[in-house]
């Protein structure tokens, strides 16, 4: 009885060490050098769009494409479903990132019809 417990504990420690070691390349892949970065896919992958302005009325080719994002600027940033900061809004705190916008409910249309923020962002403003 004692031996399996010890083995399980060691296995847990080794697994924990493996997770820490694996976090380094994952963080290196998180590449956002602008104020705001949008990615087409989850977990900051796929095509990426970089934005420097504090206000963008239309994210252009990224329109209705973003699935993950990072607010790198040291200000709150509000993202909108429509151009020119119109429609629904979701606000990210400074430095906050979202690895999958599908997790955020968008209360659009007639209740109880709910959608989510995946492929919805069209504009943003920092403040
Ligand atoms: Ca949109």
Outline the fold blueprint:
Layout: H1 2-29, E1 36-41, E2 45-51, E3 55-56, E4 68-71, E5 77-82, E6 86-92, E7 97-98, E8 105-106, E9 115-116, E10 123-126
Antiparallel strand pairs: 1-2, 1-4, 3-10, 4-7, 5-6, 5-10, 8-9
Fold and architecture overview:
It comes from Falsarthrobacter nasiphocae. This is Peptidase inhibitor family I36. Pfam families: Inhibitor_I36. Keywords: Signal. Residues 1-21 form the signal peptide. With 127 residues, the chain is of the alpha+beta class. It folds into two domains: 1-30; 33-126, Gamma-B Crystallin, domain 1. It is built from one helix and ten strands. The chain has a four-stranded antiparallel sheet, with no helix packed on it. The longest helix has 28 residues, at 2-29. The radius of gyration is 19 Å and the shape is globular. It starts with a helix and ends with a strand. The model is unreliable at 3-28 (pLDDT under 50). The site of calcium ion (CA) has 5 residues, from strand 5.
């Amino acid at each position: 009885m004692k031996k399996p417990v010890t083995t399980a504990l060691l296995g847990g420690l080794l697994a924990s060490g493996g997770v820490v070691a694996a976090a380094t390349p994952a963080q290196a892949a998180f590449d956002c050098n602008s104020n705001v970065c949008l990615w087409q896919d989850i977990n900051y992958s796929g095509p990426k769009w970089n934005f420097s302005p504090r206000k963008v009325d239309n994210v252009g080719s990224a329109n209705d494409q973003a699935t993950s994002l990072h607010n790198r600027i040291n200000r709150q940033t509000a993202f909108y479903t429509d151009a020119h900061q119109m429609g629904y809004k979701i606000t990210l705190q400074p430095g906050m990132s979202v690895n999958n916008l599908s997790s955020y409910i968008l209360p659009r249309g007639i209740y109880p019809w709910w959608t989510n923020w995946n492929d919805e962002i069209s504009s943003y403003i920092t403040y």
